[in-house]
C-alpha cells in the first residue's frame, strides 16, 4: 500500500523542484524528505524521480502518481469539510492572503462584518503568485490573486475586474490622458519583478502596441513603483486600485481578481461564509 502521507511529500517536490525547497515547505529536513521519497518509490515499485544536480524532475510514473495524489488530497479536504459541516462549522478562523489593494478594498471591509459572526480572518500581505504558493502549501485557506492558469488543485471564484492605468511623472507631456501606449515606446519603464504575472500583462500590452518596454527599475510594491515614477525614473502600468494613473486609450489591459481555495474545501460552511462576504464587498 502507498502511504498517503508520502504522497504529500511528492506533491511538494513537484511544486518546488528541489528537495531543499520541498523540505522547507513541509517543515521537514531535506534528509527526511529524501527518505520519504525513497520509501514511496519502493512502495510504488517504479522510479518516480530524475535527479539533475540539485533539481529533481518527475518520471512519467511520478507525474501519474502526483495526479492521483491531487485527487486523494481533494477527497481528504472534502471529507474534512463534510465532518465540519456536520458539526455546524460556522465559526472559526480562516487564513487569507491578498495583495495590498485587495486587502484595502475587499478583505478589510469583509473582516469587520465576519467578526460579528464569530469568524476571524488572519490576513497576510502577499502578491498574487505568492499567495497561490501559500495556498498550495496549506499555509492559508484563501488566496486573493489574479486569474490563474487552470489547475486541478484549487477552485476560483471571481471577485472583480480592474483596468490598468498609465503612471506618469509630474509634468509629463501625456499626463492629461488618455494615453496611447505606443507613445511610450521610447520611455524607461518601472515594472514588477520576474515571476509576477502583472509583469506579463505589461509586457504583453506593450507588445500589442508594437514595442518591448525598456525596463530600468523593478519592484513588486506599487508604492515603490509610484515613488520611482514620481522621481522621474520612468513610466509604469499599474492596476487602478493599486495606483491611480492616466487611462489607457482604447481597450486597457485588465486584472481579473479571484478568490482561490483548495479544491474540496468549497462546501465547508465556514469557507462559504467567507467567500460570500468577499464577493458582496467586491461587488459594492
From TrEMBL:
Organism for this UniProt entry: Lentzea flava
Residues in domain HTH lysR-type? Answer: 2-59
Cited SUPFAM superfamilies: Periplasmic binding protein-like II, Winged helix' DNA-binding domain
What family is reported?
Answer: Belongs to the LysR transcriptional regulatory family.
Q: What name goes with this protein?
A: LysR family transcriptional regulator
Q: Sorted alphabetically, which keywords does the UniProt record give?
A: DNA-binding, Transcription, Transcription regulation
Superkingdom of source: Bacteria
